[in-house]
Amino acid sequence: MNLRGLHLDNNRLTGNIPPEIGQLMNLTLLILSTNKLTGNIPPELRQLANLEELYLYNNQLTGNIPPEIGQLTNRTGLFLGDNALTGSIPQEIGQLQHIDQLYLSGNQLTGCIPTELRDVPNNDLADLGLSYCVPAFVADSLALVALYRTTDGPGWMDNTNWLTARPIGEWNGVATNAEGRVVSLSLPGNELSGSIPPEIGQFKNLESLSLFRNKLTGRIPAEIGQLQNLTSLSLSYNQLAGRIPVEIGQLRKLVGLNMYGNSLTGQIPAEIGQLMNLVELQLSSNKLSGSIPPEIGQLQNLRRLDVHANDLSGSIPAEIGQLQNLGVLSFAGSSLTGHIPAEIGQLTNLFRLDLSSNKLSGSIPHEIGELMNLAELHLSGNTLTGSIPSELGKLQSLRILSLFENELTGTIPPELGELTKLTVLVLSDNSLTGSIPLVLGQLQNLEQLILGGNQLTGSIPS
């Protein structure tokens, strides 16, 4: 069909604009204004490669402006005003180099106006009540400036090139990609003080944020949850306070989360269980309270879980046993109660288990004897009862066995003499009885043997 102009304005047309209009390949002018058309603007209009002017104003059209309109490179006039369109103005419209008339008012558009549209000769953009978009690299620059000002940039140990005309990729600690977007911000041990600004959430391409070992105070801003590309977050050894924002759970690409050595309070957010790529979670040496969320058991890739030295309560959730890749587990000094879950015996990759200095009770689960890679077992400073399970003798990789200051009874199992790699054996301050097994004398790598504070009898093996 050779149709070049379609004029159907000022009628009483209803219903949707048929997508088949996109088959009118020679159309240069389409006027459907001042009708009662409803529904979305069909993306099939992108097929009208020769279209120069599109009049759809004064209808009842809804939905977003389709970005496909930006493919109509011959477009000179776009009239979409007085409908019920929503959403933002597509950046693709800014690619229409020949457009000289643009009318969009009388809709419910949100967001910002693409800066490329600023030079359209005839427009009603001022009537939209929207501001122009800040170019992405400019947004990153402004966020860096905000960080500099809120963390006493002049007092940093190294602020080379900051707030100069040099490219931001040359500012100390800043790395950018080919488009000039910030992908890494690394300022550890740089004497930053003050608070982390909410503008930190503007780094849409940021993959690594390292601000550890500074003097940062205040709360972790919720806007940090906007960093959708972040894989590593390190805020350790600062003076940060307040709760861990639940928005952390939105960082689905996160691999490492380190916030130890602060003054964080409140509970460990259950939303952390949504971070399926997380390999390392370190929240130790804070003031966290409440129970360990069972959702942590969903972190199938986790290899290190360290929450020691907090003010937690409750028991160790059985879901911990689902962390099949875990190598290090430390809940030491965290006021935990209840029994040690038998499910810990499922953590076959575990090489360090530290549950010391809690209020754990009950017996040592014999399932721990299944942890063939375990090198360190720290259960001291609890109120554990019962006997030392003979199954511990199967832990052929064990180097440190620390069970002191409990309420253990019974004899020292001779099976401990099979732990040929053992260097430290501390069983002091329990209620152990009987004699010291002769086989302990055959542990050639043993450097420390501490058995005091028990009720042992007999002679010391030569």
How do the strands and helices of this protein lay out in sequence?
Elements (H helix, E strand, L loop, with lengths): L4 E3 L6 E2 L13 E3 L4 E2 L15 E3 L21 E3 L6 E3 L12 E3 L4 E3 L11 E2 L12 H15 L23 E3 L5 E5 L6 E2 L13 E3 L4 E2 L15 E3 L6 E3 L12 E3 L4 E3 L14 E3 L6 E2 L13 E3 L4 E2 L15 E3 L6 E3 L12 E3 L4 E4 L13 E3 L4 E2 L15 E3 L6 E2 L13 E3 L4 E5 L12 E3 L4 E3 L5
Index terms:
462 residues, mainly beta, Leucine-rich repeat, LRR (right-handed beta-alpha superhelix), 13-stranded mixed β-sheet, six-stranded parallel β-sheet, 1 helix
Q: What's a concise summary of this model?
A:
The protein is mostly beta strands and 462 residues long. It is built from one helix and 35 strands. The strands form nine sheets. The chain has a 13-stranded mixed β-sheet, with no helix packed on it.
